[in-house]
UniProtKB/TrEMBL annotation:
It holds the Pfam family Tannase. Keywords: Calcium, Carbohydrate metabolism, Disulfide bond, Hydrolase, Metal-binding, Polysaccharide degradation, Serine esterase, Signal, Xylan degradation. GO terms for biological process: xylan catabolic process. The lineage of its organism: Eukaryota, Fungi, Dikarya, Ascomycota, Pezizomycotina. It catalyses: feruloyl-polysaccharide + H2O = ferulate + polysaccharide. Its EC number is 3.1.1.-. This is Carboxylic ester hydrolase. GO terms for molecular function: feruloyl esterase activity; metal ion binding.
Length: 560
């Protein structure tokens, strides 16, 4: 996608503040002690090397070559006592790409302590000055050992590193370009999406616009939910409850028979709205003494029903909503239903909650859930689940939330639950009152963030990451957010693109508009379904009914 139009910047930047000399003159506002480490220019076409602490861990970063020449500034931020965060600021700095007057903060997934170099490369190519931080520690997505006996590291990861990097990054941008940014934006997915939501909830002035994808919000209960699956399925085929991958594929055939074309009018292998699916497991053949193929045992059918049930406590209080129908095969392939221990949940409880490296996550129970909840404020409100966005709204902030409706790792049901929580907690009468500051887009057929090798069968590319941006993408969500923030053009749809083999070189397979919630993307009933014009948006009239329905998204008293 083409970058947003550039704005005028100080024409004497190169003369009065070169990149190499910047470190010696930087001054910082705010409450943090900040030390510049490196100020160095890189030309377009080169690859920025990771610092030693970052390169020693598996950061899963495939940033590739720079699309824009940049001035790279690296900083050490003392966040508290002996705790510190590492951050980088990348600023477009040559004729290939002009600065567009905007900043874009990026963040990480899982428990990661890695700068999101791929996203920084991506957004600087669009003209943004980019910020990235390591969450106050160096680690891979599944490694929480940095939290062991260090709640300061937990606080850095939960919010402080991101907020501090915004404060410091804006200082660097102002001194390099000779002017403040016109607008500040944020983009992140998974825990990065959670961080965006946390910023809107607790630091409403940090960003004018936020893109929060597949957010791991209500974090404690998400980990409780994820850890529960091995208790439901068992660890291997030796357990009578266990289903193999082939058996989950078998279950999928029955789900799609009931809920694909029968609900959305198109037999395309995509459940357009799996929340409308009321799957009846009684259709699955039950094995007996003579029939052992193409069937499940009654015990396995119980497993299917349990897997697609919400997490509730002993008093039937909803803690986390159910896995979405249609996501179970990828859930097996990505480790949710294959009998393995959930790595993030284990490390969060072992190191972040209990400070006990020997903690056994397979025995997690309600007592553990309650204890983790009791520490949420101590952990910096890491749950990121406040529905009060009043200050963010008053500041003029806009947030786009998107979530894959085939997400096997973070249930897309929780995105709808959060939307309803905001509407309820803020006392808003309808979606029209939510529209001015928050919009949710449910992306049919998209797995977790559209990355990880299993992106999903839907039209999941819309510029939400470097992976999802390519020549020929129908829409770029970053441009969409900018247009909303700066021109008040609130999006009603986001059009996604599906390439053959998920590769732009093979051409476009189809495009599809994804409607803002509480509207459902609906096939018109005639015309080529690969044509986006054959799909419309229809209001879900009873979308606030969240208790006595499937999926259950609230409690009997209306609480979330």
């Amino acid at each position: 996608m083409a970058p947003a139009p550039a704005v005028s910047v100080n024409s004497n930047v190169a003369a009065n503040s070169t990149c190499a000399s910047l470190c010696s003159s930087l001054e910082f506002t705010g409450d943090y002690t900040i030390t510049p480490i490196l100020c160095e220019a890189y030309e377009a076409g080169t690859t920025v090397p990771a610092p030693s602490g970052q390169s020693e861990v598996n950061c899963d970063s495939n940033q590739g070559a720079l699309d824009a020449g940049i001035c790279r500034v690296t900083l050490s931020i003392q966040t508290a006592g002996n705790s510190e965060a590492y951050m980088e600021v990348w600023m477009p700095n040559d004729d290939t790409t002009s600065w567009n007057g905007r900043t874009m903060s990026t963040d990480n997934g899982g428990l990661s302590g890695c700068v999101a170099y791929d996203d920084m490369t991506y957004v600087t190519g669009l003209g943004f000055a980019a910020f990235g931080d390591n969450g106050g520690h160096n680690s891979s997505s599944f490694d929480g050992t940095a939290f062991y006996q260090s709640n300061q590291n937990v606080l850095d990861w939960a919010f402080r590193s991101c907020h501090a990097s915004v404060v410091a990054g804006k200082d660097v941008v102002r001194q390099f370009y000779g002017q403040e940014q016109d607008y500040a934006y944020y983009i992140g997915c998974s825990t990065g999406g959670q961080q965006g939501m946390h910023s809107a909830q607790y630091f409403p002035d940090d960003f004018d616009g936020i893109i929060a994808g597949s957010a791991a919000a209500d974090f404690n209960h998400l980990e409780d939910w994820g850890a529960r699956f091995v208790q439901l399925t068992g660890t291997s085929s030796d357990d009578p409850r266990f289903l193999t991958e082939d058996q989950w594929i078998f279950v999928q055939s029955y789900i799609f028979a009931q809920c694909d074309e029968a609900l959305d009018g198109v037999n395309d292998g995509i459940l357009e709205d799996p929340t409308a699916c009321k799957f009846d497991t009684s259709a699955i053949p039950v094995c007996n003494d003579t029939e052992t193929d193409n069937c499940l045992t009654s015990t396995q059918i119980d497993t299917v029903n349990n897997v697609f049930s919400p997490l509730v406590d002993s008093e039937d209080k909803l803690l986390y909503p159910a896995l979405l129908y249609g996501s179970q095969v990828d859930a097996f392939r990505l480790g949710t239903l294959d009998g393995s221990t959930q790595g993030i949940a284990h490390d969060w409880y072992a190191y972040g909650v209990y400070n006990n490296s020997d903690f056994n996550i397979t025995g997690l129970n309600e007592e553990d859930w309650d204890y983790a909840d009791s520490l949420d404020e101590f952990h910096g409100n890491v749950s990121s689940y406040s529905g009060d966005l009043s200050a963010f709204r008053s500041a003029g902030g806009k947030m786009i939330i998107y979530h894959g409706m085939a997400d096997p790792m973070v249930s897309g049901n929780n995105a709808q639950r959060y939307y309803l929580k905001v509407q309820s907690q803020m006392g808003l009468s309808s979606y029209e009152d939510v529209d001015p500051f928050m919009r949710l887009f449910r992306i049919s057929g998209m797995a977790h963030c559209g990355v990880g090798g299993i992106a999903g069968p839907g039209a999941w590319m819309f510029g939400q990451s470097a992976t999802a941006d390519a020549e020929g993408v129908a829409e770029n969500i970053i441009d969409t957010l900018v247009d909303w923030v700066e021109n008040d053009n609130g999006p009603e749809t986001i059009t996604g693109t599906k390439f053959y083999y998920d590769t732009a070189d093979y051409g476009v397979e189809f495009e599809r508009p994804h409607c803002r919630y509480p509207f459902r993307t609906t096939y018109s009933g005639s015309g080529d379904w690969t044509d986006p014009s054959t799909w419309t948006c229809e209001l879900i009239e009873d979308y606030t009914n969240c208790y006595d329905t499937e999926p259950r998204l609230c409690n009997a008293d209306g609480s979330f």
